[in-house]
């Protein structure tokens, strides 16, 4: 708990940024902020145990707000072609129980000078928490504030197809467990294909996570996936490195397969 407080209140929380890449042109079209916990001057810990610990100790909203404030501060200086870069921030399903959460999130980003419309909130579903009775209300308020809303890790945890229609999502992210196996396993491939079809039917932007190979990129591009995230294009990195990546752009080599196939 001491470590948790230290991270939340005394600067131990560091967002890393991972590029979201447009499958239409291979260019960076957004960034996802991923929490990292400083364990030593140069070391960072995996966020998952930390997030779970914060959830169990009723500190997750504090963590989200501190994280959001730091992310917003960095995001103000992220531009592509002179346009502000859309930013995604992960939130806990636990926060969907709190009716005041959308207001706090909106005032947090706006106080930092970042419009809510530049931010998409990703609700993760892997940690087996159900959404609870306030979820529809909270998700609607989040949308009314102008945030985008993404269903993260679709197909895992509690996610079910009903939810896509019931809640005001704007984006669907296919979990990397499906992406990773889609070229070798029939079931994973079917999950990816079905997710894409569902998203298109509902008018949601579709994002694939865990894109590690050119073959995977090609497969997803052919299916009509809008955006990809993965080690093939860029790993999560500190803000200063991400800023440099934005300035120089992704190496064209990495999407050469796509461009030559479309040519
Ligand atoms: P997520 O939101 O689904 O994030 C994607 C995870 O996949 C990240 O792990 C990222 O580093 C990793 N990843 C990205 N590309 C690849 C790839 O090509 N291959 C593989 N194998 N992995 C890839 P990370 O950073 O360890 O985060 C894990 C999870 O922790 C996130 O999953 C999210 O659910 C949660 N999380 C991270 N930051 C926050 C936060 O600020 N708040 C909350 N509530 N949850 C967070
Ligand atoms: Mg996410
Ligand atoms: Mg995910």
Question: Could you characterize the architecture of this molecule?
Answer:
The structure is a single chain. An eight-stranded mixed β-barrel has the order 1-2-6-7-8-9-10-11, surrounded by five helices. The protein has 263 residues and is of the alpha/beta class. It contains eleven helices and twelve strands. The structure holds ligand C2E and magnesium ion (MG) (2 copies).
SSE map:
Layout: H1 2-9, E1 13-22, E2 28-38, E3 44-45, H2 47-56, H3 60-75, E4 79-80, E5 83-84, E6 87-91, H4 101-111, E7 119-123, H5 135-144, E8 148-154, H6 161-166, E9 171-174, H7 176-181, H8 186-202, E10 205-208, H9 214-223, E11 227-228, E12 237-238, H10 239-248, H11 256-262
Helix pairs in contact: 3-4, 4-5
Bound molecules: ligand C2E and magnesium ion (2 copies).
One magnesium ion binds next to β8.
Query: Care to count the β-strands?
Result: 12
Question: Which structural category do the helix and sheet elements fall into?
Answer: alpha/beta
Rg (C-alpha, Å): 18 Å
The low-confidence parts are none
- Let me know the largest β-sheet: 8 strands, mixed, barrel
> What best-fitting shape do the alpha-carbon axes yield?
globular
Bound ligands, named by name, code or SMILES:
ligand C2E, magnesium ion
Order of helices and strands: HEEEHHEEEHEHEHEHHEHEEHH
Order of adjacent strands in the largest pleated sheet: 1-2-6-7-8-9-10-11
Oligomeric nature of the chains: single chain
Distance between the termini: 56 Å
How many helix segments? 11
Average pLDDT over all residues: 90
Strand content: 15-25%
**Can you give the helix content as a percent range?**
40-55%
């Amino acid at each position: 708990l001491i470590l948790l407080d230290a991270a939340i209140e005394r600067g131990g929380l560091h967002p890393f940024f991972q590029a979201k890449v447009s499958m239409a042109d291979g260019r960076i079209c957004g960034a996802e902020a991923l929490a990292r916990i400083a364990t030593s001057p140069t070391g960072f810990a995996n966020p998952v145990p930390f997030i779970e610990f914060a959830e169990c100790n009723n500190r997750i909203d504090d963590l989200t707000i501190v994280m959001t404030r730091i992310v917003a501060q960095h995001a103000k200086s992220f531009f592509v072609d002179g346009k502000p870069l859309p930013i995604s921030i992960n939130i806990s399903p636990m926060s969907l129980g709190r009716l005041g959460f959308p207001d706090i999130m909106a005032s947090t980003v706006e106080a930092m000078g970042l419009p809510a419309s530049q931010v998409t909130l990703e609700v993760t579903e892997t940690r087996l928490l159900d959404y609870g009775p306030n979820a529809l209300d909270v998700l609607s308020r989040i949308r009314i504030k102008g945030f985008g809303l993404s269903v993260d890790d679709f197909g895992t945890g509690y996610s079910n197809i009903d939810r896509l229609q019931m809640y005001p999502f704007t984006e669907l992210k296919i979990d990397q467990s499906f992406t990773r196996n889609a070229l070798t396993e029939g079931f994973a491939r079917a999950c990816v294909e079905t997710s894409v079809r569902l998203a298109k039917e509902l008018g949601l932007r579709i994002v694939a996570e865990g894109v590690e190979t050119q073959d995977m990129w090609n497969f997803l591009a052919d299916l009509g996936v809008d955006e990809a995230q993965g080690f093939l294009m860029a790993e999560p990195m500190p803000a200063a490195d991400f800023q440099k990546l934005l300035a120089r752009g992704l190496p064209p080599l990495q999407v050469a397969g796509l461009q030559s196939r479309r040519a």
